[in-house]
Structure formats: C-alpha cells, structure tokens
Amino acid sequence: MLNNSTKQQPIIVNEKRKGFRVAAIQMASGPSVSANLEEAARLIEDAASQKAKLIVLPEYFCIMGMRDTDKLTVREQPGDGQIQKFLSDTAKRLGVWLVGGSVPLASPETDKVYNSCLVYADNGEQVARYDKIHLFGLQLGNEYYAEEKTIKAGSQVVTVDSPFGRIGLSICYDLRFPELFRMMNKVDIILAPAAFTAITGKAHWEVLVRARAVENMAYVIAPGQGGYHVSGRETNGDSMIVDPWGVVMERLPRGSGAVVATIDPEYQTSLRANLPALDHRILQYC
Fold it and tell me: What is the dihedral of CA 165, 169, 173, 178, to 10 degrees?
C-alpha cells in the first residue's frame, strides 16, 4: 500500500489553506432504508457542524440488502420517494449541497434499476443526476458480483456547475476507467462514492483515487461503505479526500463517520498554472 501519511505540500504553493469545507460520509449500511437514513442524517449533521458545505454520501447509502435484488423493492420514481425526499429536505434544512452517492431509481426494465448519484443544492433542489455507466463484475475465489443482472447502465457523462466549482460525477467502479474523467473536460472536484469490496479495495482503492486526482489536477471526494454488513459482505472503507497533487488530506480507514477537509481553489489554480498538464494534452480522443 502506498505510504501517504505525510501532509506535505509542493513547495511551489503556500501551505496556508483557504477555501471551503467538504465532507465524505462513510457508512456500513444495512437492509433497512429507514435505519440507513437515520444514520445518514446523524453523520450529515456531524459534517455540517464542522462547517462542511458540500457533503457526499457513499454508494448504496440507503440500502445494502441481504440480496442484490433487494434494491429493486425500494426503487423510486425520479423525483418521488422517501430517499429523495430525505436528501432534498436535509440539504434545505442544513443549508448544504448534499450528494446521495447512489439511489436505486426505476428503469424501463422491471428487473433492473438505475444506480443514480443525485446532487441537491442548498435550497433542496435536485440539480444533477448521474446513472452509473460502468457495471462491476468480479469472480475471485468465493466472491462473485454481477451488477448487470440488477442494474441498467447509464450512458451520459455528467458534470454540474456549483458555487464550489465544476463537479464531475462518478460511482465506484467508474474509477477504473480514466477516459470517463477525461470526457468531463476540466473539472475542479470529482465525486467518487463507492462500495468497494475489501479485496479489491485493499489492492486498488487508494491508488485509483489518487491517480484520478493527479491526472485531472482535481480534488477527489471519495466516500465509501466501510465495514461488515448484515448480509455478510465486507466493504473496504478508507473514505478519503485527496488534493490535486495526489495528497490524501483526510481519511477514515474503517467504521462510520465524516471525513472533513478544506478545499482551496487558489491552491488548485496555482498548481495548474505551474504545471499546465491539462493544456498539454495531445491525444484528445480514446
């Protein structure tokens, strides 16, 4: 595993940080939507009390069922349902931008849902939706996952302009596909809510998150599911916030909690001016 315990910054930039606070929420969600929303509310309020203005929940924050098909039973129509109402009401009540890492939304196929990342502004309005494009599949020892059996893949790359800069949306397995993030063009912040497995997470989570930050010179907010779930599944955790130089600013290895850090747009602008790699691209198409 990469050793990233130091918080040292490049010498080309003043280490004194300004900017705004953001949070990555880590959970170990279970099969009860109401219980998960109650836990999410507690953690969101904790992050808001630390002055976080952009708060991101992990993938499947609202349900980690006993079976993959459990999410089909709690699917919601776009714009309607207790999960979306919770996100909208909480964002408005706390005056924060709130991101539901993923919510199961109805698809045209009755046996599948969209795995959708939903962004709510501080007035409670939904301002962006991203349907997960890359669907996870794994056969490794006793572990087997096939998201395509219950999830319909999205097809649109999504970014959203916000008071915090231009934000690019992704979910979990998307991290393995750097071309997705290149198609976003220049984004200031990348969101990567996840539910990485313990095995793949230990091997690849940190290096993937930091690589996406470095190559896009963007901040990455990467909240994850972290711990043992009622179903017997174990997720990696290690939620983190990474700066455009690839430095892990804050992280939470295990358990539920809020990872809070300060994003400094001036620092990012300075890095991009001193190392204009994004302007040096030659191969524009995959």
Answer: -60
Relative to beta strand 248-252, strand 239-242 is antiparallel
| Confidence grade of residue 18 (pLDDT, cut at 50, 70, 90) | confident
Q: What is the pLDDT of residue 8?
A: 46
- Would you please indicate which residues are annotated as catalytic (active-site) residues? 59, 132, 172
| Model-wide pTM > 0.85 | yes
Nearest to 151 by CA among 194, 105, 191, 195: 105
Q: Distance between CA 38 and CA 155 in Å, rounded?
A: 32
Q: Which residues contact 210 (CB under 8 A, 6 or more apart)?
A: 2, 4, 220, 242, 246, 248
pLDDT of 141-193, one tens digit each?
777 788 999 999 999 999 999 999 999 999 999 999 999 999 999 999 999 99
pLDDT at position 3: 42
263 burial type by CB count under 10 A (0-12 exposed, 13-18 middle, 19+ buried): buried
| Residue in 26, 1, 2 with CA at minimum distance from that of residue 260 | 26
